[in-house]
Amino acid sequence: MKRVHLFDWHKEHAKKVEEFAGWEMPIWYSSIKEEHLAVRNGVGIFDVSHMGEIFFRGKDALKFLQYVTTNDISRPPAISGTYTLVLNERGAVKDETLVFNMGNDTYMMVCDSDAFEKLYAWFVSIKGAIEQYTELDLEIENKTYDMAMFSIQGPKAGDVAMELFGIDINELWWFQAKEVELDGIKMILSRSGYTGENGFEVYFEDANPYHPDPEKRGKPEKALYVWEKILEVGKKYGIKPAGLGARDTLRLEAGYTLYGNETKELQLLSTDIDEVTPLQANLEFAIFWDKEFIGKEALLKQKERGLPSKMVHFKMVDKGIPRAGYKVYKDGKEIGEVTSGTMSPLLGIGIGIAFVKPEYAVPGVEIEVEIRGQKKKAITVNPPFYDPKKYGAFREE
Length: 397
Hints:
Layout: H1 7-13, E1 16-20, E2 23-28, H2 32-41, E3 44-47, E4 52-57, H3 61-68, E5 81-87, E6 93-103, E7 106-111, H4 116-130, E8 139-142, E9 147-153, H5 157-165, E10 177-182, E11 185-190, E12 199-205, H6 221-234, E13 240-241, H7 244-254, H8 296-305, E14 310-316, E15 327-330, E16 333-343, E17 350-356, E18 366-371, E19 374-381
Parallel strand pairs: 3-13
Antiparallel strand pairs: 1-2, 3-9, 4-7, 4-8, 5-6, 6-7, 9-12, 10-11, 11-12, 14-17, 14-19, 15-16, 15-18, 16-17, 18-19
C-alpha cells in the first residue's frame, strides 16, 4: 500500500482512512458533509500528494509532449499549466493531466494517482522506440513519491493565499503558477483545483518516510510545517482538513469527470476505436486539432462514424441515490449506465453522471435510473449542479 508524506498525521486525525487507487488515504476527518460545506462556504485543505508528478527535461521535451498529449502545450508561458489528455492509439483516455511549463526546457505533468505508473512506463517505451531511429535530448523522471501537493479550496482560499504568500489568486488566470516561498521553503503555487471553487495548490519536494526507495526515506519536516502553517493561518476563516470523500462529492457537484469512472481505456484490441474517447466524455475542448498526436486518427474516424455513447449529467426527481453501474432507461428501454453518483450535500438530492445513447445526451430529457430494482425518475441537466451565481469559482459576490 502506498502512503503520502503525512500519512501518520492523517492516521492520527482522520476518522476514516482506507485504500484508494492503491494508496492508504484519509476519507474524512469529521464527516463528508461537513468538509464539503466548509469548502463550498469557506475553505478546506486537501492533502493530494498521491497525485502523480512526472518530469520531462531536455530540448526535445516540448516536441515529445506535443506528440503524446492532445492539447497545445506550447501556449502557456512559464510557469503555467495546460489541461490536456493522454490517449492510447485507439483514442481512449489513458488519463487527464495538467502539464506545467517550468521553464528551461522542463515540464511537470500532474496525473492521477492510479495512472502515473502506467503513464511513466508508456512514455519511457515511446521514448525508447523513437530512439531506435533518432536521438532525443529528453529525460523522463517519475517524482511522485518525492513531491508533496496540498490543495486549498473555497471562497476564502484567496484570503489564505494573501496572508501566506501575499498573492491575490484572483489576478492569476486558471492554471497560472508562481514560484513562492513559505518561511524559506520553496514551492510552486498554481491557481487550480478539483472542487469547482476558487483555490490554489502548492507543490514542493520533501522527504517521504514511506518512499519505495529506502535511501530516500526521511522525516517530512517541510510537508508537516507547511500543512500545519496553512491550518494555523486558515483558522480564522474556518478552514478544515478535508478527505477524499468530500473531494469526490465536490467534483461531482461541479460536474467534473473522474479518471477510472468517466474517462478510461478499455483496451478493446479487436476494434480500431477504444472506449472511452474524449469525444464521448465531452472533453473535445482539450484537443488541439492543428497538430499530430497519438490517438488523433481514431478520433477523426469516430467523428465520421458517430459516437456509440455520450456523457450526460442528471439529477434525481424521485428520491434515490444513483451509483456507478446503475442502468439508465428511457421509455422502458435501456439507454446507458451511471458512471458516478452521490447525494449532493449542498442540494440534498441525488446527482450523477452517465453515458447514454447520444440522442439523449442533452439537457431536459426525462430518464429513469434503476436503483435497487426500482426505476426512479431523473432529468438531464447542464453542469454544475449548483447555482453558479451563488457557488463556485465565478460566483457573484
